[in-house]
Amino acid sequence: MNAFDGMITGFQVALSWEGILFVLIGVIVGTLIGMMPGLGPISAIAIMIPITYGMDPAPALVMMAGVYYGAVFGGSTSSILLNAPGISGTVATAFDGYPMAQQGKAGKALAIAAIASFFGGTVSVIMLMLLAPALSSVAISFGPPAYFALMLMGLTAISSLSEGSTIKAMIAAVAGVMVVTIGIDPQTGTQRFTFGNVNLFDGFDFLIIALGLFAIAEVCMLVLNRKNRSLSDDQKLGSLKVTRADLKEMSGPMTRQSFVGFILGVLPGAGATIASFISYIFEKRISKNPEEFGKGSIKGLAAPESSNNAATSGAFVPLLSLGIPGSGTTAVMLGAFLVLGVQPGPLLMTDRPEIFWGIIASMYLGNIFLLILNLPLIPYLAKILSIPRPLLISLVIMFSLIGVYSISFNVFDLYMLLVFGALGFAMRVFSFPAPPFILAFILGGMMEQAFRQSMTISNGNLAIFVNSPLPLSLILIALLSLVIPGLLKWRSRRKLANM
Amino acid sequence: MKKTMLTTILAASALVFAGCNSEESANESTGESGAFEPSKNIEMVAPAGAGGGWDTTAREVARVFGETGIIEKNMTVINKEGGGGAIAWAYIHGQDDSPYNLFVSSPPLMFVPLNGQSEYGHEDFTPLANMIADYGAFAVSADSEWEDLNDLFDQMKEDPESVTVVGTSSPGSMDHMQFVRIAKAAGVDPKKIKYVSDQDGGALTSVLNGSVDVFSTGVGEVVEQVRAGNIKVLGVTAEERMEGEILSDFPTAIEQGIDESFINWRGFFGPPNMDQAAVDYYEEKFKELSESEEFAEVRKKYGWNEMYLSSEEYEEFLNNEYKEIEVLLEEIGLGN
Fold first, then answer.
1. Which of A45, A268, A410 sits opposite B205 (nearest CB)?
2. Per the CB < 8 Å rule, is B50 touching A202?
3. Cα A452 to Cα B333: distance, rounded to the nearest angstrom
4. Between chains, do A457 and B198 touch, taking CB under 8 Å as contact?
5. Beta carbons of B267 and B53 less than 8 angstroms apart
6. Which domains does chain B have, with CATH numbers?
7. 3-class state of residue B139 by DSSP
8. What residue intervals traverse the membrane (chain A) (predicted)?
9. For A358-394, what is each residue's pLDDT tens digit?
10. Which chain A residue is nearest to residue B53, measuring alpha carbons?
11. What tens digit of pLDDT does each residue of B313-333 get?
C-alpha cells in the first residue's frame, strides 16, 4: 500500500464520527493538561489506558495521540503568560514568549505560538506520512558515539545562549552538568552526590529545575520589582493581530525548524525538549539580529514552537514503524497499543493499516482542531495577566507546587523546587543566564551516558568517535560552529581595519 | 436554634461512637474467629511511575478484583515513584501492621537492596502471593553469525572484550544479572562480561545498528522484532518452552545444555507485621483472582505466564532466589 492509498484508509478512520469525536476529546484534554505546569502527557495517557479498555483500538489510539500533541500545543500558554513551562518541551518557548507578554503583546505571542505550532504539526505530519517507512532507518542509525556527537553539537551552542558574559554562561552550564550527575549512575549503579538520601537516587526531574529556575525565580523578581508595574488591561493583552509582516518574519524559522524538529523527534531519546532548544539556538545563530533573541523576538518564539510540535509527530516514526519508543511518553503509548491488542512495529503498516494511517490522518484533523480551539481562547487566557498581581503570584506558586508534586507525589521534591527557585533568583540577581544551565542539564546527562557507553564498547579507545562517518561529521559540525563565528568576526574586524 | 445545634452535635457524636464500635467489633471478630474482612478501601502501591510493568499489574489486578467482586471494597492504585522502588518500600515499611496497604513487586525488590540502594528488601515485608512469571531473552541482530547461545558463549570465553551486552537496567540489576547467571552456567567468566546500560530507550536501536552485540531483556520486548526479521533470539531464561506464536520458537538455555534459568516473578506484598488473618485472606483472594477467567484474559493480553504461589511458597522461593543472586553479585564485585 503506498502513502496515497494509505491516507485514504486513514481518513476513513479519522473522518468517521468516532474518529472526529475522539480526536476532539484527545486534543481538548491534551491542551488542558499541557497548560497545567507539571501535568504532562505521560500521566494523562497512562490514566487513559484503563478507560479505553475494550474500545475499538483505532479511535482509542487516535485520542491518545491527540492528548500527546495537544499537550505540546497547550504547553506554550503558561510558558508565555507566566514563565512557568507547562511541559518540558515548552521551556524554550518562554525565552521570547514571556518577554513579549511583558511588553503587552501577550495576545500576539499566544497567536504566534498557536500558528507556529499548527504549522510545525502539519508539516511534520506530511513528512510522517511520506517518509515514515524511509526514516525508520535514520532512527536506528544512531548508536552511542553518534548520540555523543549530537549532544556535543548541542552543547557548543551554549555560548550563543548567553547574554553578555560568556564566562557566566559557562559557569551556569557547568553547574547544570554538575546537577545532572546527582543520583544513581546508570553505568555503574553507584550513587553520586546523594549523601545516602533515597530521594536523590533518581536525580532531579527536569520540571523541578525548569519551574524553579523560571517560574519561582520570576515570582521572586516580581515581588522585588512590584512598584514599577501598572499596565492597563488593554496593554496586557495587546492586539491579537498577527500582521503580514509578522507572518513574513516567522515564515523562515517556522519552515526550517519544522524540519529540524521533525528529524530530532525521529531520533529515540532526543524528543521535543531537545528539539525546541536546538531550533532556538539554530535560529539565533543564523539571525542577522541575534541580540533581539531573549527580548521578545518573533523568530525566537516561532522557532521552538514549530519545532517542538514537529518533534512530537516525529516521535511517532520509531514508534509506529519500528515499535521503538523514543521517549517516556511514547513508551507509555506503546503500552497503550499493547493493551488494545495492537503491536506497533515494522509490521503494523501491513497488518493494521487502518491504525497506522488512521493515527497519521487524525493528526491533520487534530492540528486543525487545536488551531480553531486555541485562537478564540486567547483573549480569555490572556486575561490571566489582568489578575491582581498578589493573586497571580500565589497562583503561579500554587501551580508550580502542584505540578511538581504530581510528578512523584514526593514532598522532598517540593523543597527542591524552592531550592532551585532560590538558585534561579540568585542567578538573576547576579546576572547568570538560566538557559545554559537548563541546556547543559538536558544534554549533559545524555552526553555523559553516550560517552561512557561508547567507551565500554570500544574498550576505552577514543577512535570510536571518528571511525564512522556519522559521529565524525557531527563532531566536525560542532567544531565549525564554534570556529566560524569567531573567524567571521575576525575577518570583519580586519576589513574595518583595512578601510 | 441552639437546641437544634446541640441535637446535631449529639447525633453526630453518636454516629462517631457507633462507627468506633462497629470497627472495634470487627477487630474483635478478627481476633476470635481468625477471619479478616476489609472494612475500608485498600491501597495498592505501584513503586514506580504510571505506565510501567508494576503500574500495569497493579491497575489490572485492582480492576479485575473490582469487576469480578472477588474483593468488594475498593482497591485504589497509587504510584510512588523513586529510587527504583526504594521510596515506596520505605513508605510501606512505615505502615507496620496495616492490612490495607499492599504493593506489587518483582526481582528488583532483591536487586535494589543488594546493590545498596534500598534499606528494605523482600525479607522486610509480608509476601502475600505471587501471580505472574515472565522470562528474559537474549537477542542479537538478525544477520549475526551466532546461531545459538553456545556460539555466543564460546566467543565470550575466547575473547570477552569483543562482546558487549546492552540492557535497560543498571549493572547489578535484572537485565544484567539474568545474562550473568546464564553465561556463568555456560562457563563464561562473569567478571569479564561487558555490560552497558541504556535507560533512554536506545538499547534495541544499538543492537539493530550494530553498536552493541547482545540485548538482554524480557521476552515481551523482542517478539515483534523477531516477527519482522530484525533480530533473532539465541535463548530465553524459561525452564521449558513457552507457549504461543513466535514464543514457542525460542529455545531455552536448558535445552542448549546450559542448566540455568531465571524467572522474572511478579507478586504482591504487605507491610512487615501484617496479621496472619489478613495474610490468609489476601492469599485466598489472589488465588481466586489467578484462577478467574477474567484474569486469564489479562495474562493473555500482556503475554504473562501464570505462576501462583501461596504466601509460604512465595517466601521460600524468594529466599532461595536471594541467596543465588547474592553469591553472583559478590562474584562480579557488585555485592554490598
1. A268
2. no
3. 20
4. no
5. no
6. 2-133+265-331 (3.40.190.150), 134-256 (3.40.190.10)
7. strand
8. 20-46, 58-74, 110-132, 138-158, 165-184, 204-224, 259-282, 322-343, 355-378, 390-407, 414-442, 462-488
9. 999 999 999 999 999 888 888 888 777 777 878 888 8
10. A335
11. 999 999 999 999 999 999 988
